[in-house]
Write a structure and sequence with these properties.
The complex is a heterodimer.
Chain A (H helix, E strand, L loop, with lengths): L2 E10 L2 E11 L4 E5 L6 H9 L6 E6 L2 E2 L5 H7 L1 E4 L11 H8 L3 H4 L2 H11 L1 H5 L10 H13 L5 E5 L7 H16 L3 E6 L2 H7 L2 E6 L2 E7 H6 L1 H7 L3
Parallel strand pairs in A: 3-8, 3-9, 6-7, 7-8
Antiparallel strand pairs in A: 1-2, 1-4, 4-5, 9-10
Helix pairs in contact in A: 3-7
Chain B lengths: L1 H16 L1 H7 L4 H26 L7 H18 L4 H25 L5 H21 L9 E2 L12 H25 L1 H18 L4 H27 L1 E2 L1 H4 L3 H13 L5 H19 L5 H16 L4 H7 L1 H18 L5 H17 L16
Antiparallel strand pairs in B: 1-2
The chains are: A alpha/beta, B mainly alpha.
Chain lengths: 235, 370
């Protein structure tokens, strides 16, 4: 397993947001963690990226225990985060944003090659490379957040709600892009509220509700599951 | 590339060493050296503030604390304990850095202390230091400390020359360091911390370590500059050292010049120091605050990126305005002393750079990372 999470409890202050969450991600896989707003998806992503210290439980990456490792160490090990929405560096240029993605030592060596690859994948970013990132549209900012994460040459790409706040047409483009990235060999854990699109993309899925994993299995099966259909697709 | 950078800054340091000779050759007096020292003092202080608050985005009201720690450490160690001046000055820089590092360990560990809270904590540190100085007899005890008998080493020249030269070295050190940081990987990481610290950490920036380094560097420079300033003011009192002037001025200067480029605080210090000095010279000291207030309002409202960006975007027009105004004043003799004339020409150049005409709009300059 590339990522093994066991019995994770986490929260903010005294408010617990995750209870006993376990999940696995195998190399080359796309795994979707779906659930409604407030289910604890972003809390989980923060724990995996190292931005939030879990109360208990363990996180193993590539055979190494990283439960206590700070975020910048995890970036070095090959975990990259594409945070939700417009969390780009607004005052920095598009290109500087991308260079920030290659901040860790391992990725830095391939910086120029990575930059060329990202510009090839996202020509819009190349056009706007000298523009402050704060002036980008929602879709462009999301592309930048993904491109920046790819600059880190990740073994595991964590994506937090890539469809959040985007127009439906752009959401479709976004999922196509994620499919391409996966086809290029990047392992992806995607956290999404957009249950159908996420599960159609993923090979396996987990359903998170009120901080607990309530269902898990192959994405196909989850899509056909009567409980999920009732809860999320209004069928 | 790297070696050229060091060469340029070494050249600036050497050139600034010979300014007193130039001033003398041109028939200028001590007045010019005092003016220049004041300018360089503010350049060092504003640059120091901007490293922490501009580059890393941690807005501080605590400049007075670090500056004051430098002033008082030097004054007490040299005047009361008879330390050699240079050792006392070094201790001033170290004390300021140690106080800052202690504050940083506490404040940066607790992630909630950001933004306004961080600014308030820094202000509180200044208050505490001022109270300690006022209460402890050994430090000040309300009496003040006299450092009038102290001198820099012989080869720095006579008193005014030596203070100017030491001030120039400190300023060159501060600005050179800021320029180096801005071009470095470290500087890129600081920009990330300023824009979105959590994301920067997630991308591999060791944020805690970086914040500690920049806070310590910034305060050490401020303390060093303060250590020298103890010499310049001669008689050190709590009210003069720990007042609102230093923290307020460095903020004004940096914001006026622009906080995202190392030249911003330099330009801001030049504008504000020249303006306040000239207003005082004409007996209009009371007008200072009015002018500064207006200036700040205009800058914050009209150009958030600061004056420096505008000067660069219109550099030829600005240069032409400066030269033309100065020539006109020199020929007609208006304005009196050369320094006033230069100040007026500088002011005109800045006004031209601020005109909202279509003389060329400033584009965001691409950053170079080496």
């Amino acid at each position: 397993m590339l990522l093994e999470v066991r019995g994770l409890d986490a929260g903010y202050g005294l408010a617990q947001a995750l209870w006993d969450v376990s999940l696995d991600v195998a190399p080359g896989e796309v795994v979707a963690m779906v659930g409604p707003n407030g289910a604890g998806k972003t809390t989980l992503i923060s724990c995996l990226a190292g931005l939030l210290q879990p109360w208990s439980g363990s996180v193993r990456f590539d055979g190494e225990d990283i439960t206590k490792a700070p975020a910048h160490v995890r970036a070095e090990l090959g975990i990259a985060l594409a945070p939700e929405g417009r969390r780009v560096f607004p005052q920095m240029s598009v290109e500087d944003n991308l260079l920030m993605g290659a901040y860790n030592r391992r990725a830095r060596r391939h910086r120029s090659a990575s930059l060329a690859e990202v510009y090839e994948r996202f020509p819009r970013l190349a056009e706007r490379r000298h523009q402050p990132a704060g002036t980008l549209s929602g879709g462009e900012a999301q592309m930048l957040a993904i491109g920046r994460a790819l600059m880190g040459r990740p073994k595991l790409l964590l994506m937090d709600e890539p469809s959040l706040g985007l127009a439906p047409v752009i959401v479709e483009t976004m999922f196509d892009i994620i499919r391409e990235i996966s086809a290029a060999g990047v392992t992806i854990l995607i956290v999404e509220q957009n249950v159908v699109d996420a599960l159609e993309l993923a090979s396996r899925g987990y359903v998170l509700e009120e901080g607990r994993v309530v269902q898990a299995g192959p994405a196909r099966e989850l899509l056909d599951d009567p409980h999920l259909q009732r809860a999320y697709f209004g069928l | 590339m790297r070696s050229r950078f060091y060469l340029v800054w070494a050249g600036v340091a050497v050139a600034s060493w010979f300014i007193p000779q130039l001033v003398e050759a041109l028939g200028g007096g001590i007045f010019y050296l005092v003016f220049l020292y004041g300018l360089l003092f503010w350049v060092a202080q504003a640059t120091s503030w901007n490293m922490l608050s501009g580059f890393a985005g941690y807005f501080s009201f605590g400049q007075g604390a670090f500056f004051g720690a430098g002033v008082y450490t030097t004054a007490v160690l040299s005047a009361r304990l008879g330390w050699p001046l240079l050792a006392a000055m070094a201790a001033g820089a170290v004390t300021a850095a140690a106080i800052a590092a202690f504050m940083g360990v506490v404040v940066f560990r607790l992630r909630i202390l950001k933004g306004e809270i961080f600014a308030l904590v820094t202000l509180a540190v200044a208050f505490v230091l001022a109270s300690v100085a006022r209460l402890v007899k050994f430090i000040d005890g309300g009496q003040g400390v006299s450092v009038t008998s102290l001198r820099l080493p012989e080869f720095f020249g006579d008193f005014s020359t030596s203070v100017y030269r030491a001030g120039a070295l400190v300023a060159v050190l501060a600005v050179g360091l800021a320029a180096w940081i801005q071009r470095s990987r470290f500087g890129l990481g600081l920009s990330g911390i300023r824009d979105d610290e959590e994301v920067a950490e997630g991308l591999g920036v060791p944020t805690f370590r970086y914040k500690m380094i920049i806070l310590t560097l910034s305060s050490a420079l401020s303390g060093l500059s303060g250590a020298l300033h103890a010499l310049q003011i001669g008689y050190v009192t709590v009210d003069d050292v720990f007042n609102i002037r230093v923290p307020l001025f460095v903020i004004l200067m940096s914001i006026l010049g622009g906080t995202r480029h190392w030249m911003g605080p330099v330009v801001g210090a030049a504008v504000i120091h020249t303006l306040t000095d000239r207003l005082s010279a004409f007996g209009a000291e009371n007008m200072n605050q009015i002018f500064l207030g207006l200036l700040l309002v205009v800058v914050v409202a009209a150009l958030r990126e600061g004056v420096y960006r505008r000067l660069v975007a219109r550099r030829w027009v600005v240069l032409a305005t400066f030269v033309a105004t100065l020539a006109l004043l020199a020929v007609t003799g208006w304005g009196g002393r050369l320094i006033t004339q230069a100040g007026i020409a500088f002011g005109m150049a800045i006004l031209v750079s601020l005109l909202p005409a279509r003389l060329g709009s400033p584009a965001p300059a691409p950053r170079e990372v080496t």
